[in-house]
Design goal:
Elements (H helix, E strand, L loop, with lengths): L2 E4 L15 E6 L2 E7 L3 H7 L7 E5 L5 H4 L2 H10 L6 E5 L3 H11 L11 E5 L5 E4 L2 E8 L5 H10 L7 E8 L2 E5 L18 E6 L4 H10 L4 E7 L7 H9 L5 E4 L4 E4 L7
Parallel strand pairs: 3-4, 4-5, 5-6, 10-11, 11-12, 12-13
Antiparallel strand pairs: 1-2, 1-14, 2-3, 7-8, 8-9, 9-10
This protein binds zinc ion (ZN).
Zinc ion binds next to helix 2.
Length: 265
Amino acid sequence: MAELLILGTSAGVPTPNRHSFGMAVKQNGKLFLIDCGCPASMLLKKMGEDPRNIEAVFLTHWHPDHAGGLPMLIQDLQLTQRRRDLTIYGPAGTTRKVEWLQNMFIIPPEVYPFVLKTVEYTEATLYEHGDLRIQFFKTGHLAQDNWRKLDEKHGFQITPVAYGFVIAIEGIKIVVSGDVLTSEDLTHVLPGADLVIHEFGHIHPGKLAQFVREQHIANLLITHIHHEWDERAEELQRIVSGGHSGKVRIAHDMMRIKLGTGDQG
Ligand SMILES: [Zn+2]
């Protein structure tokens, strides 16, 4: 039976209670890491998991709260002698960024005993592993004009782009928002979703409540919590669930959700 492991649950500013964003799907002893905020490898170990069991890493985008744990994870896997190839799936520019990262953190491919691969996914990509499927959809988080202007100024070389994921596993559909511009970024992927995992770093709580009601979201998990709301989970839960009959939960670090038991539905 598959499980969701919630790692860090903060947005851009970690707090004493919440580490940077990350989660993993676990099935048959394999881990599929969804974003890698710091300290993903340490949080996996705290949850009793071995990071060497990571099958692949999927990055929604390259902001530090989603990818900052990657060099530490690679060093961890180097020193714990991972042997199997590891593939990092990320948006356009990922291959070059992983090369930069290897140089910047002095972890060239020659020093570790596994092959690090990259795949730059698009909306046309379908990842499949057993019955697990992941599809990728663009969000508006990095789509604004200011990012294109900064790209021209600083030469990021590829204009940054952010995605959300649709995960299908064991007959269950999970929508992971990634970072959004507005909740409407998700509207087209919501039909049939058994669990919607929505970020709360860029959204007004009243707007999120309205969206959840209008879209009749039956099962919502809020994570990527803005630091000002870190210790106001009950208030946030009350606002978003007000006038809404569906289930609303606020994620916390190291939360486990068993899929297929009704826990997700
Ligand atoms: Zn973020």
